[in-house]
Amino acid sequence: MNVQPISGASAGATGRRGGGAGKGLPALVLGALLLLVTACGGPGPAGGGKGGGKERDGGTVENAASQAVVTILPKDGAASVPTSGALKITAEKGKLTAVTVADSKGNRVEGKMAADGTSWEPVRHLAAATKYKVHAVAKDADGRESAKDTTFTTLVPKNTFIGHYTPEDGSTVGVGMPVSINFTRGITNPEAVEKAITVTAEPSVRIEGHWFGNDRLDFRPEKYWAPGTKVTVRLNLDGVEGRPGVYGKQAKTVTFTIGRSQVSTVDASAKTMKVVRNGKLIKTIPITAGAPSTTTYNGQMVISEKYEVTRMNGATVGFGGEYDIKDVPHAMRLSTSGTFVHGNYWASRDTFGSANVSHGCVGLRDVRGAYDDSTPAAWFFNNSIIGDVVIVKNSKDKQIQPDNGLNGWNMPWSEWIK
Fold it and tell me: Alpha carbon of 413 to those of 62, 97, 181, 389: distances in Å?
């Protein structure tokens, strides 16, 4: 477009007008500039341009609201929310880009986003009696964000359970020590409870859990632990519904270390016990095993308790009044049913290594009161730790059941992992 300049004559004529000399020229210039802008920019709103917002490159409207809609369940302010299955976050007409769920202490809840970005769910249960804050953000197809914030509180359980675990936190144990957890209530939802417990090792090894009944869960690797292994147990039971209306109330991390390897083999026929440490035979000890009428179980057994002096009563292990022995020295439990390896002060010295006379235990020569550290029983007691393995073979008895003590090693791995 050509814009004609203002001629000098016109300017002079305008300037000679009385009173209007200061207004005429700017008005003409403004008119020409408006004509120029209109010609270069095209028609205004009346000619079909967009209105109602500032236009960006590409045609999107900068100030328009996002089309994405975020929905959070449970609703804001909800109380007595179930700890599992209730929390879900979704987006319509857009995709979730950020989700944060945290309790009042700032502990975040781990979650999983759907592949298409339209939903988010926690990967585990929530804690009971806990207030949570939720912040979720979604974007629509034009990149515009929509956010939502809510709070809710989980239920306060009337009935609860915990797990009593072994070994103890910070302990050093033998290579045969499993992780064993006994629950205070029978569990009818074992999958949820087992999912809430993790057992890891450094160096890493595959570890699997196995249920004995509905109140005991043990974890172990396929073979004995390697010496020096660091094991971590995380009990995230708070809020887990173990049975209808019964919730866990325990959040605990336990660590323990595997010490040197010691595996002792009792040959009931030869009446000896060979102690092997880190693959080397370090001592052979004469023993007495179970008499023909009260034989000793065969199998792999783990030392679960140690008593420098204790009392042994036949009635406590299923016998009648056959025996009641006070001051039994250097006793170490091998089974729940009462199998021990212990010192024996009442049998004659020549019994050990030549005759089996016990009620099912493995006896080593000792003195009453456990005061003599030079006896074979004292030596074995002082050189053993919780978690060491004692294997009994060539006894005229059956193999010990895997749930009788910490003795899951007697179950084949293929059965253990079923």
Answer: 63, 44, 19, 18
Q: Smallest Cα–Cα separation from 162: which of 220, 232, 246, 254?
A: 246
* Per-residue tokens: 267: 């040959």
Q: What is the pLDDT of residues 108-147, one digit of tens each?
A: 999 999 999 999 999 999 999 999 999 999 999 999 999 9
Strand ranges of the sheet holding 216-220, from the earlier edge strand across to the other edge: 163-166, 179-183, 216-220, 208-212
Counting every residue written for the chain, the total comes to 418
H-type alpha helices, 180-295: 190-195
Give the span between the Cα atoms of 357 and 368, in whole angstroms: 18
pLDDT in tens, 9-18: 333 333 333 3
Q: Are 285 and 366 in contact (CB under 8 A)?
A: no
Which residues, other chains included, contact 319 with Cβ-Cβ below 8 Å and sequence gap of 6+?
A: 359
Q: What is the pTM of this model?
A: 0.80
- Cα–Cα distance between 349 and 353 in angstroms, integer? 9
pLDDT of residue 272: 98
Ordered by where they begin, the domains of the chain are 69-154 (2.60.40.3780), 159-258 (2.60.40.3710), 262-413 (2.40.440.10)
- β-bridge mates for residue 139, sequence order: 95, 145
Asked whether 312 and 323 are in contact (CB, 8 A), the reply is yes
In the sheet with 69-73, reading across from the earlier edge strand, the strands are: 69-73, 88-92, 119-122, 111-113
CA distance 386 to 339: 15
Q: Is 291 helix (H, G, I), strand (E, B) or coil?
A: coil
Question: What's the CA gap between 290 and 396, in Å, rounded?
Answer: 9
Cα–Cα distance for residue pair 282/292, rounded to 1 Å: 30
Burial label for 16, CB within 10 Å (0-12, 13-18, 19+), is: exposed
* Lookup result for tokens 């609201």: 65
The Cα–Cα gap between 132 and 153 comes to: 6
Alpha carbon distances (Å) from 138 to 70, 72, 144: 7, 12, 8
Known catalytic membership, residue 342: yes
Confidence of residue 324 (pLDDT cuts 50, 70, 90): confident
Residue 417 has φ and ψ, to the nearest 5°, of -90, 0
